[in-house]
Design brief:
By secondary structure, the protein is mostly helical. The protein is built from 7 helices and no strands. It has helices at about 1-20, 25-60, 65-80, 90-115, 120-125, 125-160, 165-170. Helix 2 runs antiparallel to helix 3 (about 65-80).
Length: about 200
Amino acid sequence: MMFRRLSLAAPLAAIALAGCGVNAIPTADENAKAKWADVQNQYQRRADLIPNLVATVKGYATHEQQTLEGVTEARAKATSITVSADDLKDPAKVKAFQDAQNQLSGALGRLLAVQESYPQLQADQNFLALQSQLEGTENRIAVARSDYNAAVQAYNTRIRTFPDTITAKIIYGAKPITPFTATAPNAEAAPKVSF
């Protein structure tokens, strides 16, 4: 009699556990962490390109030292602040990372504005190739951040909805992951371009 009850209870317990997100919650968490790794990969790609861009511009714009130093300093700061997958649930660490990346984006914008003052730089093939690579990288960063935010939304929704919320809190002690947000001043406004 006891064996029969256990044989009936085992499948019911398996179905109940499957419906409570026992496997889905860690899967969603790992997906968000993988997407964050993609974001970091694209930022690293940008950081690797910057020294080449700075060296090319420096060859033409030797008296624009302040702008070049600003890019170099911003790059150093951006690469010194890291956020591991475990830090994604700490909004302060994610914000510090975002702020450093935004400073680098601003410095790069000033550097690219320097090229307008140097017609021979605009025509240099090395500069054009690096600028194209940097623009492509910025697009990849935007896509990676968007993919990360989608994964974060899926994870955060899963840990907050029934019945997964029970498993998330009791078994995993799950906390929401911090999404990537625009923190640059006036990020919602389109940049003005003038020639």
